[in-house]
From TrEMBL:
The gene is atpI. This is ATP synthase subunit a, chloroplastic. The chain crosses the membrane at residues 35-56, 95-115, 135-154, 191-213, 219-240. Pfam families: ATP-synt_A (PF00119). It comes from Apopellia endiviifolia. It is found in: Membrane; Plastid, Chloroplast thylakoid membrane. Keywords: ATP synthesis, CF(0), Chloroplast, Hydrogen ion transport, Ion transport, Membrane, Plastid, Thylakoid, Transmembrane, Transmembrane helix, Transport. SUPFAM superfamilies: F1F0 ATP synthase subunit A. The keyword Transcription does not apply.
Length: 248
């Protein structure tokens, strides 16, 4: 009986640890579920910005692009080149929308955290911040990437896709399986850690030296935010290309 009581106590301790949270959060109740309202609000703002820019830039398309249309076509060409480079000339076209969506959402999310005065808007609990400042968002993006490259491999190779796990030798089976777990972990924590660290550094500098020094750091934050979006999109495209081609 004592062993059963000890096991029950251990499980209770695990449940208590799982309920620990860092900071305060604003929740919405959806049926029996709780969702982080801060992340949904800021994510919807980012989506609205992207849709608004797309509509404004493409509502009057011209044969010779100019103004907003010229900028949108430049961005599209950049995303197409990025996808083509990582996936290959023959297979890249169906994946341009996915890679482009990842890049643009992360890019605008990161910049919104540096440029928007989110903290001006008061909530009952917690505060607004960039969507990528929340680990749930980055994990979701990383899992979408994992689903995408599994789908790409299975769609092209069928069940023979799983043969890669025993190449070049079956001895490497555990390591090859572990690799597929580390990919989303690496993607999510790299993005989350860099964005969180950047916002913390700027917040600390503003509290200590509120005038001159934080401004260069904010510009550096904009640069690193763009680089993080590029890295995530590049790795996502590279993983998809690798799943269709085998090993690089």
């Amino acid at each position: 009986m004592r062993d059963i009581a000890d096991i029950s106590s251990t499980f209770n301790n695990f449940f208590e640890v799982s309920n620990v949270e860092v900071g305060q959060h604003f929740y919405w109740e959806l049926g029996n579920f709780q969702v982080h309202a801060q992340v949904l609000i800021t994510s919807w703002v980012v989506v609205a910005i992207l849709l608004g820019l797309a509509i404004l830039a493409t509502r009057d398309l011209q044969t010779i692009p100019a103004g907003g249309q010229n900028f949108v076509e430049y961005v599209l060409e950049f995303i197409r080149d990025l996808t083509r480079t990582q996936i290959g000339e023959e297979e890249y076209r169906p994946w341009v929308p996915f890679v482009g969506t990842m890049f643009l959402f992360i890019f605008v999310s990161n910049w919104s955290g540096a440029l928007f005065p989110w903290r001006v808007f008061e909530l009952p609990n917690g505060e607004l911040a960039a969507p990528t400042n929340d680990i749930n968002t980055t994990v979701a993006l990383a899992l979408l990437t994992s689903v995408a490259y599994f789908y790409a491999g299975l769609h092209k190779k069928g069940l023979s896709y799983f043969g890669k796990y025993i190449q070049p030798t079956p001895v490497l089976l555990p390591i090859n399986i572990l690799e597929d777990f580390t990919k989303p972990l690496s993607l999510s924590f790299r993005l989350f850690g860099n964005i969180l660290a950047d916002e913390l550094v700027v917040a600390v500098l503003i509290s200590l030296v509120p005038l001159v020094i934080p401004i260069p750091m904010m510009f550096l934050g904009l640069f690193t935010s763009a680089i993080q979006a590029l890295i995530f999109a590049t790795l996502a495209a590279a993983y998809i290309g690798e799943s269709m081609e085998g090993h690089h």
